[in-house]
């Protein structure tokens, strides 16, 4: 099958999460992502658990569809090879601390002289400008500083970190968007550019309505718990075997929910007739609903509410997510064969495209698995030349 | 300044959040986004609080840089106009429930016949295939079903919804990525396509290492609280006036932290020498650290830890985020003039591009503000023709 980013060559210097997530998205859509790793150790996340046969499941799920070449970028000869590769590439992506590439003599200003068409994407904690630029950040730090923790957590409780590293993941997504937009510009003009994405900036960009609420009310929003602040009922309710999220987003859906419950009188009740009234009397309504929802299992309520068209869902743990019929029907859990680790399940490709569906074509590379292949293919080197370089310990 | 997506014409049928977020990202980078709204009511989120002078701050922050035309797509004449517009457009984006566009006779299969170059992006709760396809979803439902709630929350506590509507926002980001990748393919081949993005799929795609952990251990991960499961110290600590996130990600950073604290002996302590040891003895280490951190303010610790290069940050509430020097230096809080609401602060553009920096050029449109302008410009209609149509109540 054709791929949307076929023919786009990406030199990928990224490690751990934000950068590798960005290049994974591109690789999933067909870009030729060449992961350049330090000899012997490679991407730090190769050492992150959990492991299967000593291979990191974390690394394997983020680096599918990529090829690996090792290069010791501190060695002058390796730098030369990298520069030769830049001449043949479309995109360079890195997520070092700002200044690192410049110290290596491989900053954007240098690479641009070598290839003015190059798109250079840098993902970092705080970005390539501003007073904190040179500081290191981790996901936990930008989640703390960017405000998302302050509005996540139990109502009345403490700020809470979002489970997945959303600070890294959103930076990866915005980086991919920046690269693709720059590609569009280059297609029209022939000119490359630098794309600079900061994890902290991305946290601010995803705050949704929290900024608007603060600007208008002058009060900083707090952790909101699981209840919607202005729609009722819109929260999880206890069932006989767990919980169910019920989101009756308007009056018509509330009537339908009451019909399912056999409590049609609620829809006529002066306290519950309209959404604003229900929100006002939420403390009275929730116990009434819970009394009903406790009488059946989550699955039973789910079937009944689905039939009536009332938005609802179980609060799935990961095992349940991985066997959900919709998730499976959409190929969102796939299985990849790895030469060392065997079969490995991981998340599929969430962008479904009618002409160029992205797929997982290859497992994550072993460290330096494609060094020889890439040097031959990209730089036209011979086996002899490569063997000679091997003795210089540059890869 | 030139813009990366200049010249790309987007017909935007989206409402509320996931779709409008995707088209905002494109509009911020220069795409000409024409928001098509139902006459009189418009985008549902025009009715969402908080308000300034009766204008929704929520709507205004998501719809900057777009133009608005009203069209009653149920009227045959309006459909004709829409079809004429599709002939001139590059992209159509909608986030209706699957099947709605087909019912209107405006599904992808129809539009493709009219313009085979069109890129048709659909963002929905569950996607355009699979057993749940036709069901409605809200952010709370996909956060519940997709697993993110099950791994967010206080340690030992209940699953917790992420504060911002991350289900919508990530779907918006993946939709933008899909459209841009499809544009690249079209630039090479002249062929358009359908891009189908489900909120639920995107939740699975951002679970990060949770799937790997479950696959390897057979145990579904639980809410993890604010502490890192395998790095110590890596969590918020009490200060004299709040909390500070300290992320000493390796042994060298731990030594630096101890130097700042004046507790160099910890680095020699048999319980705390290495990260695995610190993680094993976390219950002993955390009270010791807290005893120290309680002695100064968050700001004081921040300055000291920054100077030593130890990653750290305050847990900012939204008011603090909006006055953070780095956030301001990166133009991540901007002010937009609105003709009714006056000055409004909102999040800036997180993708920093050296050649084509995205900017907020215009405030969110009033309902139908550009109807006449767009009909003239795009379809070459005269004032007389437009006046005649006005009488038919199609916009």
UniProtKB/TrEMBL annotation, chains A, B:
The protein's enzyme class: transferase
InterPro entries the UniProt entry points to: CoA-transferase_III_domain, CoA-Trfase_fam_III, CoA-Trfase_III_dom3_sf, CoA-Trfase_III_dom_1_sf
Alphabetically ordered keywords of this record: Transferase
Keyword Transferase: yes
Molecular function as annotated in GO: CoA-transferase activity
EC number: 2.8.3.19
Protein name: CoA:oxalate CoA-transferase
Pfam families assigned to the protein according to its UniProt record, in alphabetical order: CoA_transf_3
